[in-house]
Write a structure and sequence with these properties.
The complex is a heterodimer of chains A (113) and B (111).
Chain A (H helix, E strand, L loop, with lengths): L3 E4 L2 E4 L5 E7 L6 E7 L6 E7 L5 E2 L8 E7 L2 E6 L8 E9 L2 E4 L3 E5 L1
Parallel strand pairs in A: 2-11
Antiparallel strand pairs in A: 1-3, 3-8, 4-5, 4-9, 5-6, 7-8, 9-10, 9-11
Chain B lengths: L3 E3 L4 E4 L4 E7 L6 E7 L6 E7 L2 E5 L2 E6 L4 E6 L8 E8 L7 E2 L3 E6 L1
Parallel strand pairs in B: 2-11
Antiparallel strand pairs in B: 1-3, 3-8, 4-5, 4-9, 6-7, 7-8, 9-10, 9-11
Chain lengths: 113, 111
């Protein structure tokens, strides 16, 4: 099946710093990638849709200047959490579209101290 | 009414039992239906993917779609403790429409 990787798998940072998370589709090309956020025991919350070569589309309530998304190629999308604060601590998951189904990465656990 | 309804559980069954997980939906435009399994602190893993009404079987898993009733099911036969996870249903319409998820059902299979 299609494989999506994420890096790093976990990160701890100080408040005020920026953190970049990479999402790669390893064996297929993905025109569209999605970024989700998930709090403990909660469902997935779509943050933004990332389209290769164009600006990302953000869901209502998601600050585009705080969560910068760059979809530089058909296999790579990055999410940068700028000036991170403790309330940004969460599990961030990317997914890539292939064959009308979504394939998810393993997730990145961000802890902001 | 939410677009996709899924009982969050938790659902606890003994090992070897048949598990039935269900979702209902309201949007008749949905055509593609998926089931994902998510272990704690991991990304969701695609289990089953179906298009249109009918049954699809893969090993111990059977996905069932009834478009007339707007109802989908996932059956797990001979359930194992390793099946303990959260199961998410998801669906979408045609074209580049977003995937809509259920809230997930937490399943525990007790040895």
């Amino acid at each position: 099946g299609a494989v999506v990787s994420q890096h790093p798998s976990w990160v701890i940072c100080k408040s005020g710093t920026s953190v970049k998370i990479e999402c790669r589709s390893l064996d297929f090309q993905a025109t569209t990638m999605f970024w989700y956020r998930q709090f403990p025991k909660q469902s997935l919350m779509l943050m933004a849709t990332s389209n290769e070569g164009s600006k990302a589309t953000y869901e209502q309530g998601v600050e585009k200047d705080k969560f910068l998304i760059n979809h530089a190629s058909l296999t790579l999308s990055t999410l940068t959490v700028t000036s991170a604060h403790p309330e940004d601590s969460s599990f961030y998951i990317c997914s890539a579209e292939g064959d009308m189904a979504l394939y998810f990465g393993p997730g990145t656990r961000l802890t902001v101290l | 009414q939410k677009e996709v309804e899924q009982d969050p559980g938790p659902l606890s069954v003994p090992e070897g039992a048949i598990v039935s997980l269900n979702c209902t939906y309201s949007n008749s435009a949905f055509q593609y239906f998926m089931w994902y399994r998510q272990y704690s602190r991991k990304g969701p893993e695609l289990l089953m993917y179906t298009y249109s009404s009918g049954n699809k079987e893969d090993g111990r898993f059977t996905a069932q779609v009834d478009k007339s009733s707007k109802y989908i099911s996932l059956f797990i036969r001979d359930s194992q403790p390793s099946d303990s996870a959260t199961y998410l249903c998801a669906m979408r319409g045609s074209g580049n429409t977003p995937l809509v998820f259920g809230k997930g059902t937490r399943l525990s299979v007790i040895a």
